[in-house]
Known about the structure:
Number of helices: 0
Shape: globular
Order of helices and strands: EEEEEEEEEEEEEEEEEEEEEEEEEEEEEE
Radius of gyration: 19 Å
Amino acid sequence: MPPLALDADTETGGAFELIGASPEVQLTSKRARLSFRKQFEAHLDSVRFVKLAGAGTLVSGGDDGLVKSWTLGCDAKKAALSLNTVGRGHESPVTCGALLRRQLFTAGMRGEVVAWEVEGTGLSLRRKIKRGSEPIWGLAALTPSLVVCSTPNLIRFVDFENHSKPFVYQTGSSHNFFGRVCAAGVGQFAVHSFSNPAGEVGAPGEQHFIQLYDVNRPETPVHKFQHGKGLVNALEFCKVNKLLAVATESGHIVTLDTRERKLALCVKAHSGPVLSVTLNETSGLLASAGLEACAHSSAYHSLNLESSLRLWDLRKGSFACLNTYEKLDHKFDESILGLEFSNAGDFLFAAGADASLRVFDVEKLL
Length: 366
């Protein structure tokens, strides 16, 4: 099956829609809004991910090589975060994490994958496997013992029950995997890849794809979505409606319908790169974190960037911007690298490049 092209409506059967081309996204709804609750110093270096591991339990991983579990207490008046466990299973900075029920999997810059058991509000190291030394930038949990990870030029399956025979899908030099990988929870996972004649990032003629795989037949993608929005910084599945959100370096958020295998929507969400996204299946909200170019800047340089969070409503089949939160001291080093909603969608947790975890209220206005 040939890949679909994002910039051609004719190939999507009219399903693709471009909304909000202006970098200055306007407030179009008042159904909910973000308000800052509290900031916590969580790690010694950038926090790469934060995950909700049960009622009142958060887990995080950072560039300090540590994986931590936290007890969260939030009510109408206060927010408290107390440290439970410090996991030391990594020999390098933690790049990403994936959670499936009570199993947490984390990956590192030196190619190691660590499995953890979430026990109450604590963590215990279950097993550690290292295959190769390339950094792992994407990680997805397919079963309680099987994860798939992406490195610059291969997809590797790690089976913690039969780790002596991992499956590896090696790509060619002109088609390298790059970016994030995530699982839908129904036997499929998605990977961002790019290809160009030179096999280098940013080379002329570069093309970007989101490839959809069946867990039972991982050798060949069952579908390819081609998009023209540049490198992908994050992927996030909504397991209920099979929607896949794609955060891009160009500032766009693209949503893909993996059930119908078609492109759904696209919005220019941030004027700079979108760094992370998360979907809440209960409320139908999407949160994005990105960078904004300052009014005086002419290029996306770290000194001319401001961090922002935005809240979106996807219930009506379109992007409606509910709220923009930009009070992050306007520093590049305070950018948000990971996002996670609470189960009910009433709180948003943010992992920061400034080594902090932030808690936001998602106030329901209707």
